[in-house]
Amino acid sequence: MGVSVLAARLGKRACEIHSCLSRREANAFVSSQRFDLVISELRMWDRSSDPLATSLIGSRTTLVYAYPAETGCWWLPAVKNGQSCWGSLALRHREFVGFLDETLREIASRQSAYSG
User: Which segments of the chain have a pLDDT < 50?
Assistant: First the structure.
């Protein structure tokens, strides 16, 4: 799933989308604001290997890493609602779409519970 397709899918759900080009920029961004969902390349452009997961454990955030492969992309869940799930099975495209839809429903439900 390309970035533009993913952004369009999230945009249809009225999600606010931000992008970062480096691990350092992403760390600064997630530490300054609260996010419900973070999707990141496993190794960002600056080739850093320290994952974002550490900074998101204990929050309400879900983090999924994208790992480009020859035939597309594998999706690696790392944090689900602030709990580490690193080591979960990798998701193929269709499985990731289901995971994403489920995660967005959970976020919407949580937000309506807090606002109601």
Answer: 49
